[in-house]
Write a structure and sequence with these properties.
- It is built from 21 helices and 26 strands.
- The chain is an alpha/beta fold and 716 residues long.
- The strands form four sheets. Strands 2-1-9-3-4-8-5-7-6-10-11 form an eleven-stranded mixed β-sheet, with helices on both faces.
- Helix 13 packs across helix 16.
- Bound molecules: zinc ion (2 copies) and fe (iii) ion.
- Fe (iii) ion (FE) binds next to helix 11 and strand 18.
Length: 716
Amino acid sequence: MARIDQVLSHPISGAVPATFTIIPSQPGDMRTSITPDAGLCLNCREELFDPINRRYRYGFTNCTNCGPRFSIIEAAPYDRCNTSMRRFPLCDTCEIEYQSTGDRRFHAQPTACAECGPSLWLEVSDNNNVYARDDSAISDAQARLKGGEILAVKGLGGFHLACNALDKNAITRLRKIKQRASKPFAVMCRDLDVAGKYCELSSSEADLLTSSAAPIVLLTLKPEQLLPTAIAPGLNRLGVMLPYTPLHTLLMECFDTPIVMTSGNRHSAPQVTDNTQARKLFSDEVDAFLMHDRDITNRVDDSLVQLIDGTPQVLRLARGYAPMATPLPRGFDANHPQLLAFGGDNKNAFAIAKAGTVVLSQHIGQLGTVESLSDFEKNVQLYLKLFEVLPAKLVSDSHPAYRSSQIAAAMADALDIPMDKVGHHHAHAAACMLEHRLESTHPPVLALIQDGIGAAVDGSLWGCEVLYCDYRQHQRLASVKPAALLGGDKAATEPWRNLLARLHETYGPHDAWPAMYQKRLQDKPLDVLIAAKEAGVNTPLCSSAGRLFDAVAAVVDICSERQSYEGEAAMKLQAAAEIWLANNLTPLPYSMNIVRASDQLLLVDPIPIWDNIAADVIAGAHSGEIAAKFHLGWATVWCRIVERLAANLPERPAIVLSGGAFQNRLLASMLSKDLQLAGFHVLQQSLTPAGDGGLALGQIAISLARSDREPDTQQE
Ligand code: ZN
Ligand code: ZN
Ligand code: FE
């Protein structure tokens, strides 16, 4: 599990020491990083199924190469007494292993065996009495899953809700419990063979699944549709993970079909980690609990990764990857102030910087509910304690209404320290630059940021832009012709509103629209919304890429009425396009205009697509073909814009692609290929999320680069 960051050598005097010793931890400045949790290693797996091994079928087997780390730590340094394993004194045999230099469990802090370690049981929801223990708890849980029951399973970083992935009734029930209408569920498969029965599986995807991080990997479903569509409605991909703890390995042993494993939480609340809380929340909902007594100190959700043209892209950075510590690139001042960056309100993750290292937190999630905010603050305090950080400055997003920005402001006040605000899209760009280790003085890049909505430093709402930027400054050179968000926030959940806005802008009053569009929106309050737009009531202008994708989705009747989760319409539009492109010749892209606004800004004007889409719909074109032509046209027009902008620059810049829309694998792949063909060096995120989960890294880089430039403004 080691990762070499640096090799230093110091000559020593005197005789070469005869042995290697680990001395007890001493108080002092904390510089070590906290290791992420790791999936069951092959050696431990062998022991688990070896009848003469003393850990045969023991559900908490681990060693220095695998097992819980961050999820059980309470304080630094990482010693057993600072973890939730403190409650389990080592038995004599475990103690000998722990002390033996040659043993795989030498100083393995969470080591345990059936004699001294945590144990496992199953309780039924009626009375929460223990119904079975150890191996019989496993076999009982297996029988219940086969029989269609829903179980709450306590894992490594939190509870999952589990059911048989082939059982439609169980899935329907699970959707009710989670209050989740159509957001896809992830599944767990016993091994690669089972996963390969249902999904296409490349060797790099297999490598990711079996890596020690053991994330959920988004795999393309086989066209035969062997699983109920209710698992991932309208999508062509499925999130799949392999068992990553001994407990999961034992549980999955008898299944040659997938088991749904979705995080155990109520709608938009954080995943449950605690036994009592799980009983309270789920006793009326699930049939049984598979539980254990190793406390989860820190919640870590499952990480989510996809492969784009063979390169992994982390969509959710959590178990197995977080906390993610990276050294700052060259040129950043090694004596920089300690920083805490708050990220954003969506898909929140925060970051700290200390002594030349940046640490990105695990995915915290949506900030908004009281529960999620207190979870966020708890995690921030934990990181400050674990990494012994006393922030000298706080950094937040520019958005004044973000809860994360408000919490940062209150904390800066309380600690009496300065605060930096960073434009949302500049932060996206800097996050990508930091991941690629661009030096602090790197010449400016052209950053193509495609996002939902982000606040600029002047308070205006941006969505999709090309920035000419370095770590310190940014200049906006291109964007999308903005459209009104009819009904404000409602435009983000009801795609037809965005179609209406674009049609009105293209054709004017609705009696002038092509008949097909009139029919599509005939039951909508068109006059009321247009009147509101003209009066400027609750209809802010926005250049969002996401809302334009929503408008196109609405034409082909994908989530036209409502999206039940963020990005649903765009994800389904992408799926339709991918399925079409996999089975047909690549069609000609829809063309879009490039216009120059009065302030010299280049704008993509999608106006021509509406006539073309109407003609295709009338000609009976498949929705997948329309989706494909739109994706192709969108990639083409942005490539042309980048070429035009680059032609006017003194040096050919590197191209940064970042923002939530680049989690659209099709778009990311098409654009990076087009730009590379045009001769550009293209930088995309792989290890850190291109969406808002990576924002905090960019905030850190920008704030540090700015304070490097103004060394004299810092006061004691
Ligand atoms: Zn191991
Ligand atoms: Zn033991
Ligand atoms: Fe964003």
